[in-house]
Design a protein that fits this description.
By secondary structure, the protein is mainly α. It has a single domain, classed as Formate dehydrogenase/DMSO reductase fold, CATH 1.20.1630. It has eleven helices and no strands. It has helices at about 1-30, 35-70, 75-80, 80-90, 90-115, 120-130, 145-175, 180-210, 215-220, 220-245, 255-280. It is globular and about 60 Å long. It holds the Pfam family CopD. One of its GO terms (biological process) is copper ion transport.
């Protein structure tokens, strides 16, 4: 069932982060765009939000079936309504999942009939994303450790979503006429804080999960975590290249530099996908700490 769990977790993380991150950053990143460009970005984001909300619902179902199969006798229990019902009613994962189901249905409805990139969409998708921290490794801690680790995990999720979802919004802004420079400058400022929050909370999380630095080399979990750190560092490097080398030259050579910016943003998004894939795999492994 591990493969099914990885697929469910990966798709859910991706959809939930894009939904929250892009809806939370849309207004800020498009504020300085010409009206026509802003409307174009917001219209495309509405489609992205609808697809993300539906994907989050579908992947949540896959995640539930994978957990049920892991607790039971594999595929037989994964889709057994009685056993799945027991998972929902008798486990903390099930209770959180039911709340996430209600939030997910509401989010789908909001993306269909609600305002584009509205505050309610960002708020509810953020709460739904935070609920993931209630079913992770932090949920196994007690007392102060649970509070510190849970808070750090929540910050890590939200900041990572701002970064990834903001990249989606930025990519759409860069595809519009005269949309690159203003969006890049605004994303850079937002990105500084998001990256700082990701890195600081990541250090706290790593301390709870790995403990000693030696486990980054001697355990499978640690080696995968080290790879994740390298990928995140690569994302930071690409972002700095955009901000300090390409963005200042955009006005002088909009066609060539605009193409380079769109390419590097796509590279960042690919790196983000690899990071989320590793996060999905972590759910199938026991941390060494």
């Amino acid at each position: 069932m591990d493969t099914l769990l990885v697929v469910g977790r990966f798709c859910h993380y991706l959809a939930a982060m894009i939904l929250f991150g892009s809806s939370a950053t849309a207004g800020y990143l498009t504020w300085s765009l010409p009206l026509a460009s802003r409307e174009q970005v917001m219209s495309r984001l509405q489609t992205v939000h609808r697809a993300a909300a539906l994907s989050a619902m579908a992947s949540a179902m896959v995640w539930l079936f994978a957990v049920a199969g892991g607790m039971g006798e594999g595929w037989v229990d994964a889709f057994d309504p009685v056993f799945v019902g027991k998972v929902l009613s008798n486990t903390s994962f099930g209770v959180v999942w039911l709340w996430r189901l209600v939030a997910g249905v509401t989010l789908v409805l909001l993306t269909i009939v609600g305002r584009r990139g509205g505050t309610l969409l960002a708020l509810l998708s953020g709460l739904s994303l935070l609920s993931i921290a209630l079913t992770g490794h932090a949920a196994m801690e007690d007392g102060t450790r649970a509070l510190v680790y849970g808070s750090s995990d929540g910050i890590h999720l939200l900041a990572g979503a701002i970064w990834i979802g903001g990249l989606v919004t930025l990519a759409l802004a860069l595809s519009t006429p005269e949309g690159g420079g203003a969006a890049i400058r605004r994303f850079s400022l937002l990105g500084y804080w998001a990256v700082l929050a990701v890195m600081l909370s990541g250090v706290v999380n790593a301390w709870f999960l790995v403990g000693s630095p030696q486990y980054l080399i001697t355990t499978t979990y640690g080696r995968l975590l080290a790879i994740k750190l390298i990928l995140v560092a690569s994302m930071v490097g690409v972002a700095m290249l955009n901000r300090f080398r390409f963005a200042p030259r955009l006005a002088r050579d909009p066609d060539r530099i605009g193409h380079l910016l769109r390419t590097t943003v796509r590279i960042e998004l690919v790196l983000a996908l690899l990071v989320l894939l590793l996060v999905a795999v972590f759910g199938t492994l026991a941390p060494p700490a």
